[in-house]
Amino acid sequence: MSTNQSSAIDQLSTEDLGAKLNPNLLPKHVAIIMDGNGRWAEARYLPRIAGHREGVKSIREITQACSDLGIQALTIYAFSHENWNRPAHETSALMNLLEDFLAEESRKLIEHGIRFRTIGRIKNLPASTIQRVHEAEQATAHLDRLHLTVALSYGGRAEIVDAVREILRDVQKGTLQPDEVDEAVLQQHLYTQGLPDPDLLIRTSGETRISNFLLWQLAYAELYFTPTLWPDFRRHEFLLALLDYQGRERRFGRVLSRTTSS
Ligand code: IPE
Ligand code: IPE
Ligand code: MG
């Protein structure tokens, strides 16, 4: 996108941005690395948890936006395998926030037809969090308007290791032959089995790395990095990301269709 075009876009209202979107070119699956809560709080001389709390408002707004637009799947990175290395007071505050979110939002999730699921080594979470997560998963298991997947205690490498272990168990049982193991088999053993690969990955806060998120599934995702901190990432910023995505040309290793046609 040229500088002129992007500055013209900067002038547009949220409503105008929505009107510019092509409803036929929306990503089916959006993945988000929600980063920058700590910096948002620190800039206001607030404790980090205040940033996480404000970040929950962004989760609500982006989930609602996906539902309004008819996007089929939203996968958000809420807590990484590596985030266990943070101070205990921060990790337990995050777990409490998640429990509160599920207690408050479960009814709304059901009303909006949103299926809630988690990916990651959920068994590492505190028992009370596991219970809330299972309750929300069960209460929404029949819904499929929007698939909201929350990555918790998640690591992309750990996910691949877990998939390989399951495949090896099948081989040991004799239900699968080593030669039958291909990309499709591996994919079927990932936590995200059943979901299409993300078309668009968004990372907020200016960091331009993947931080062990969906390593297998992001193979052909379009990447969008924005300096906006997660608590400030609302519908307006999301529409900007979607418009940017709609300007991309997805080639999947092929040559352009317009140079091969006719
Ligand atoms: C993202 O915000 C939320 C989690 C990783 C749980 P951070 O807490 O990483 O915020 P920064 O990166 O320190 O600003
Ligand atoms: C990635 O953010 C994990 C989540 C958003 C949950 P981090 O803030 O933990 O990532 P790094 O440490 O900057 O790579
Ligand atoms: Mg961070």
Notes on the protein architecture:
- With 262 residues, the protein is α/β, with parallel strands linked by helices.
- The chain has a single domain, classed as Decaprenyl diphosphate synthase-like (Undecaprenyl pyrophosphate synthetase, 3-Layer(aba) Sandwich), CATH 3.40.1180.10.
- It has helices spanning 3-10, 14-20, 37-42, 48-69, 88-111, 127-139, 156-173, 183-188, 235-246, 257-260; strands spanning 29-33, 73-80, 114-119, 146-154, 200-203, 222-225.
- A six-stranded parallel β-sheet has the order 3-4-2-1-5-6, sandwiched between helices.
- Helix 5 packs parallel to helix 6 (127-139).
- The longest helix has 24 residues, at 88-111.
- It is globular.
- One 3-methylbut-3-enyl trihydrogen diphosphate (IPE) is lined by residues 34-39, 79, 83, 94, 205, 230.
Helix/strand layout:
Blueprint: H1 3-10, H2 14-20, E1 29-33, H3 37-42, H4 48-69, E2 73-80, H5 88-111, E3 114-119, H6 127-139, E4 146-154, H7 156-173, H8 183-188, E5 200-203, E6 222-225, H9 235-246, H10 257-260
Parallel strand pairs: 1-2, 1-5, 2-4, 3-4, 5-6
Bound molecules: 3-methylbut-3-enyl trihydrogen diphosphate (2 copies) and magnesium ion.
Gap between N and C termini, in Å? 28 Å
Structural class estimated from helices and strands: alpha/beta
CATH top-level class: Alpha Beta
**Which stretches of 5+ consecutive residues score pLDDT under 50?**
none
Beta-strand share of residues: 5-15%
Name of the CATH architecture? 3-Layer(aba) Sandwich
Number of helices: 10
> CATH homologous superfamily name?
Decaprenyl diphosphate synthase-like
Give the H and E element order.
Answer: HHEHHEHEHEHHEEHH
The coarse silhouette is globular
CATH fold annotation: Undecaprenyl pyrophosphate synthetase
Helicity range of the residues?
A: 40-55%
Output the radius of gyration: 19 Å
Which molecules are bound in this entry?
Answer: 3-methylbut-3-enyl trihydrogen diphosphate, magnesium ion
Neighbour order of strands in the largest sheet: 3-4-2-1-5-6
Determine the mean pLDDT.
Answer: 95
Tally of strands = 6
Count of distinct structural domains: 1
Q: Biggest β-sheet: count, sense, barrel? A: 6 strands, parallel
